[in-house]
Design goal:
Blueprint: E1 2-4, H1 31-37, E2 49-50, E3 53-54, E4 67-69, E5 83-86, H2 91-99, E6 103-106, H3 112-122, E7 125-128, H4 131-134, E8 142-144, H5 150-161, E9 178-181, H6 183-186, H7 192-197, E10 201-204, E11 210-212, H8 217-234
Bound molecules: zinc ion.
Protein name: Mut7-C RNAse domain-containing protein
Pfam family, one: Mut7-C
């Protein structure tokens, strides 16, 4: 008997979206195997319970066992720091996380094995909307991103992990570190309008792109303000 919390129902087929479901048991499958066979990646459940007591994913089951499943706590601790790797479909989310100063790797032509290998090599949490990817055995750490569109997805990531924010310290294009530079160092690279209007500049250490305050306008100012508020409310913060 499996009792999935409603927050996990999105992973289940409609006929199984209920507070208690009965699944056949072959006498040998582990708890983790039963959970994933339902379509729920193990990254999306907190410590499960069996017959009311906390249990690990490798725990063997028995006929008639009652398994309780809840999502991980929010904010979910990140023992290795807030370092993420985003699936190829999450490019807009990647740029927004970088604007907020969150360490975010993204490469729009990585295939699935590349992503899994890179997450392990760089000890990054893989963020994706592909459940199959999250169920790969070799995956170091991952999380399913909820929501359609970058705004909802960003809200979900901030709510789930409450990463420390350092707005405007990273290059939105490449994740490189931004350093302040005097205007005279970049003046030749600027359009005449920008040269006239702005005085404070930063440059990406990795790709050389030049940023100036106000470059992204009010839309990104609002993004930063909303994010700082959301993470502050969740208990994390810069
Ligand atoms: Zn850059």
């Amino acid at each position: 008997m499996v009792r999935p919390a409603p927050a996990l129902w999105l992973f289940l087929p409609p006929r199984r979206r209920r507070t208690q479901i009965t699944v056949p048991y072959d006498g040998s499958a582990s708890l983790g195997h039963v959970v994933q066979s339902l379509g729920i990646p193990l990254t999306e459940v907190g410590p499960p319970s069996v017959d009311g007591a906390a249990a690990g994913a490798s725990r063997p089951l028995h006929q008639g066992a009652v398994v309780g499943l809840d999502p991980p706590p929010r904010p979910q601790p990140l023992p290795h720091g807030a370092r993420f790797l985003l699936d190829v479909h999450l490019g807009t989310l990647a740029r927004r996380l970088r604007v907020l100063g969150v360490d975010t790797s993204y490469d729009n032509d990585a295939d699935d094995p590349d992503l899994v290998a890179r997450a392990g090599r760089e000890q990054r949490v893989l963020l994706t909307q592909d459940r199959g990817l999250l169920m790969r055995r070799a995956l170091w750490a991952g999380a399913y991103v909820r929501g359609h569109g970058a705004t909802a997805q960003l809200a979900d990531v901030l709510d789930r992990f409450a990463p420390p924010l350092r707005p405007r310290t990273r290059c939105a294009a490449c994740n490189g570190e931004l350093v302040d530079v005097p205007k005279e160092q970049v003046v030749d690279l600027l359009e005449p309008g920008t040269r006239r209007r702005y005085e404070r500049f930063a440059r990406c250490r990795s790709c050389g792109r030049v940023y100036w305050h106000g470059a992204h306008g009010r839309r990104l100012d609002a993004l930063v303000a909303d994010a700082v508020r959301a993470v502050g409310a969740a208990g994390g913060g810069p």
